[in-house]
Amino acid sequence: MVIPTLLGISLLIFGVTQLFDPIERASLYIRDPRQIRFVEEIIKKYGLDQPFYVQYFGWLSQVLQGNLGWSQSLHMPVLEALITRFPATAELVLYSAPLTIVLGIFLGKISAVKKDTVIDHVTRVMAIVGWSLPAFWLGIILMAVFYGGFGIFPPGRLSPWAEAMIRSGKFKAYTGLYTIDAILNLNGDVFIDALSHLVLPVITLTTINVALIMRVMRSSMLEQLGKTYIIAARARGLDSKTVIDKHATKNALIPVVTISGLLTAGMLSGMVITETVFEFKGVGYFAAHAATQLDIPAVLGFALFAGLIFVIANLIVDILYAYIDPRIRLR
Amino acid sequence: MKTRVETKESPRLKELKFIVRRIRENPLSLAGLVIIIFFTIIAITAPVLAPPRPGRDPYIIPRSGYFPEPQPPNLEHPFGTTEGQYDLYYGVIWGTRTAYRIGVLVVAVSALIGIIVGSLAGYYKGVVDEVLMRLTDIILAFPGLILAMALVVAFGPGLDSITLALILVGWPTYARLIRGEFLRITSEDFVEAAKAIGCSDFRIIVRHVLPNAVFPLLIVASLDIGAIVITAAALSFLGLGAPEGYADWGQLISLSRNWITGTSGNPFAYWHVYVIPGLFLFLFVMGWNLLGDAFRDVLDPMIRRK
User: Fold this and answer.
1) 20 to 30 Å CA-CA from B231: which of A186, B28, B203, B280?
2) What is the ipTM of this complex?
3) pLDDT tens column, B233-242
4) What is the distance of C-alpha A253 from the center of its chain?
């Protein structure tokens, strides 16, 4: 199932390239700015004036060799740009994804257990509000209050002094995730600084996405609580806490795992907006910046990258699903 | 003993009364309805609330001068002015029309394409189904905003490009939904019966199956308007939508980006430039989401009569 989907994704992205004229398309094949003078040769070489299927296989073999074209807005190859900016995005995901999932499960669970009480109503309203908040507006408001008002949680990834510190020879970059690197370098100041830059983007991403998990957890939990094995467990005299925590919650979590594939999509989309608002220079910031410059290879490269991540995430979900649900494994 | 007079009500009227009662009982649904009525009135009466200068495109916000610093609310500009002296009040009022235009147009066209594709796939099954559904798989294999962004770049920035891109990204959801309903409904006896008496495929699809299949679509559509308007505003915010000075909430919010931190003495000196257009966008989206939830409560047979 993965290979056909990936082929489909590549076809779709390639289909988008067909909306451009051959000269614009040529920029997808350029590796070096000096080649721009030889556009005519490139059009010839890759057969950009040839029929669709000839071009497609030419393009696909380029992509499979890791050549996604030259980004005019960043002055580097698209693949290199994606790779250098990826750690920043990974760092955001590292904090916001677990926070979103844990918070969503917790809120969904109490909302279901306390159905139709004040707690249930309050959590549901919170979910609808979070769901309806535009990420860029929430980011601006948070920044106006905390950075503008109190002077804390600045935008960007690091303060200038910390930036200078990690560029000096004394700081070793292991992962590119600044908080992790700071711990490995035993540098408390950089760690605190990197963390303070992460607070607002992580809050934004979490607020926008938590409703998804919460809704699924709530309805799944309600479904489990109505089942006969729960009634049986209660009839045997088990206390409410054991029934809820040990019996119902475990089964209710299964759909939550399924939905985490969708969560990845939400996070990737949210990343473009959130990174732009907070000037957090990850792949999303790069893509948004490239889009405003009409830097076609960069935008398409990012779309391809996002599609790939989403497919991989769904594959992991499928595997995980088989692992936690024996009914699927045994089939 | 009281006797109740049994009146012969048509089932449709009864259904409508039931829906109205359910919405009135739930304060959240009622809030959603009130918000949407409020915005609808603003959109309809925009030429009265904020009269455009005669002979000019009403969607272009009038500006008083070119001074960059936003002015706080005053008598001449009730919501103040934004960067470049665009009148914020005029902008948010006409921005409501822009939001409606994009939201309703995208949802209506996506739903229509979805209904056609989903009906064909779900009714004829087999190869038709397989091909059409693989196509939806591919589009749904992308995070929506990102695919839309790539398409807008390909079409060239602008609100029309955003509308077209969101339609291309949006229809598969409806197609899958309608297909699922068709698969369920076409296996029922009344469809067999219709076939047996010689109804044409077209008649069966349009008169017999479709009326039974569209209700879930209404729920998704109302929840979708909010999501569409947020995504369109996000693309405008990134600078891919309306040109500067066009009455569009996302564009107005993006004009506030240089004024977030305020002045040294007053950190919230320019609060109006980001709070006001954002609040309009947020309330609009929340209104549709609340209404969508209300529709689900009323229309979903799984939870409705409980």
Assistant:
1) B28
2) 0.87
3) 999 999 898 8
4) 21
